Amino acid sequence: MGNPxxxxxxxxxxxxxxxxxxxxxxKDQLRWAVGAWQRWAGKPLTTDDFQRETFNGYVDWLKExxxxxxxxxxxxxxLTLWRFAFEEGLTDNAPRKIRRLKKxxxxxxxxxxxxxxxxxxxxxxxxxxxATTQIPRxxxxxxxxxxxxxxxxxxGDLLALERTAIVGEKIVVRQSKTGDDVLVMLRPQxxxxxxxxxxxxxxxxxxxxxxxxxxxxxxxxxxVSDAKIRPGTFKWIRRASITAVxxxxxxxxxxxxxHRTRAVTEANYIDPxxxxxxxxxxxxxxxxxPDEPPAT
Length: 296
Prior knowledge:
Layout: H1 7-17, H2 24-41, H3 52-65, H4 68-87, H5 113-124, H6 137-151, H7 155-159, E1 170-174, E2 181-185, H8 188-198, H9 213-227, H10 235-248, H11 252-257, H12 262-268
Antiparallel strand pairs: 1-2
Helix pairs in contact: 1-2, 2-4, 5-6, 5-9, 6-8, 6-10
């Protein structure tokens, strides 16, 4: 085994050797996973820290302190780096006997259209401009939220959108997560807000970030808190949009989401509480019916 290298350097080497090329979003996910592990460890980590006991301890901590999706994503990203490091001879420790995660079926939770409206109302009240981009805060948030609602695009795909890609109300976006193209439609009001956002100041990207992605999440979280709606992340707008389409037309949510299979949409995005349909129930039992009032 050669000299240990930092996990951030390992990410760069992994990206350079990736067969299909690693998108910026995927690389960012790896960096966030490493950063979170280092904060837990309280020190910079190297390939020497790929140890079963250390890694399992971190996974146990994640399971106690983070949402199931976060645990699965961070564990998976770190294991990807560990496997690559082992294959490249950067560590002698193979990723064996690693803590597994229980497979649970959970019901997706999405904001309602009314809650997204409250979020939009709070965005309209934002004041000032972002320091590094000079984009007015209210214009940035309003146009981004409206586009997310109309399109159900993931945040990474939205942040990568260039103004020249939007020609008319129908646009084709190549999803960074799957590589699949998806056709989305934007309302005239949303297109008008995008024009406002791009005009001040003019630029290539519609929504360039003024900060790191984790700082964006914090800022969005404050917006959610001020709107006094249920706590949720930016992906809840995607869920809300897909659920609203599904409510209008059964099965349409999958197309709107850009998914290949229906199972992915149902398992992760559609909130069944918001659908106008009742689940089948057995008939009431005789002793389940309310008692007759006594005769007078």
